[in-house]
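Work Package 3 (structural annotation) set out to generate three-dimensional models for the target panel prioritized at the project kickoff. During this period the team completed the workflow that converts sequence records into discrete structure tokens, so that structures can be stored uniformly alongside our sequence database. As a representative example, we reproduce one entry of 473 residues exactly as it appears in the project archive.
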Amino acid sequence: MERNEIPFLSATELAELYRYCDVSPVEATEAYLSRIEQVDPSLNSYITVTAEQARTEARQAESEIAAGNLRGPLHGVPVAVKDQFCTDGVLTTGGSEILREYVPDYDATVMRKLKEAGAVLLGKLNMSEFAMGDAFHHPYGRPRNPWDLSRNPGTSSSGSGAATAAFLCATSLGEDTAGSIRGPAAFCGLVGIRPTWGLVSRYGMLASTWSMDAAGPISRTVRDCAVTLGAIAGHDPNDSYTRNAPVPDYLDGIDAGVQGLRIGVISDRINAEGVEPDVRDAVNSAVAHMGELGATVEEVSIPLLAQSAAISTTLIYTDATAVHRQGLQDHPEKYDHNNRVRLLTGALIPAQAHHKAARLRQVIRNQILEALQRVDVLALPTSSVQPTPIPTEAGMAKNGKQDFLTMLGGRRTYTTPSNLANVPGLSINCGFTSDNLPVGLQLVGRPFDEATLFRAAYAYEQSTDWHTRRPPV
């Protein structure tokens, strides 16, 4: 195989070729490093490229695989991670000017697990500052969408979406507080899953909102997403909120199809005001297609869903303000303008508003769990809009209604229900708009039932060709 074609293989395809010595981890790593050098200057998806470390890890993986000591499906596979995870001896910025010189002396648990799985680290990926939402200023370069360089690749795991879609890593890690894995997956035509809160350790991950932050994969295929999640999931004594239970093999039964699955369609969200026609049509078509594949499709209503962004935003702003209280006092000017507004807003939210939001969170969680007793999977758009244009100035839109929607999370009405209910949510590409931009279908499942989401997504993926398209970079 020609070296320049290697990055276009999926992670699972690459691992299979390793087993038969058709491609080596060293060859794959060099192919990715070469493509990063050629393509990333136009995307700014990486903050740090760990080239020499990657070469060392690739040589070790090649030696181990040749000796028959296979660690698992990510052994020797080149990966990259959002720069939110502390990495021993590697710059970890959180996408902020404030941490420009921060080099941790320990690994986040997900980094340790990737090393144990034998993955090859290509580098740390760009992100919105401290994973707090759309930022205007990106001190390490503005991330761009490989499908259209004038568009946003999604927030806040921007580099994870851009790099994975542009074949600059085989699979990646992001972090999702209110949609920061699923949004970039939708905007970049990928598969991304926010796992159940407590499935993946947050030890060593820069915090945004402790009760919602969740690390997870962004990948090009469902199988890649499944093996990546399997590598990082599991109980961790350093994070007492992680579930103490065995991690299933997410590939086991992934090809069982959707026959017999009950899919609850949240039609009032698909057809709501503000959903772009191309998005609505693609999602409706995808759900209908899953019915044709054998799933039972029925409409489901979750009354409080429309208020989820307001509830989530109230909790996130106040929690983030608590995390950044000292920094905001000491050097507020170092924060991105948009995030400074968010943090100051969080400081002004009264205690009774936070209390009400916390109680409403339990109500919406109960409504979602009740719906998931009647169906196996909920379906709705990941985003109500196609990838948005990159803003030309900081701040709000200077339009009353638009400013209000922005403050309440706007399109995040679609992703915030999962983080409020602490249930898994997966985004998969379900088509393209008339501007040739990706559209995401979101599937939401029961707590710790990621396997069913992978099963449903895989059936859809394998019966369509959306995942085979390549962006024009």
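The chain has two domains: 3-232, 262-461.
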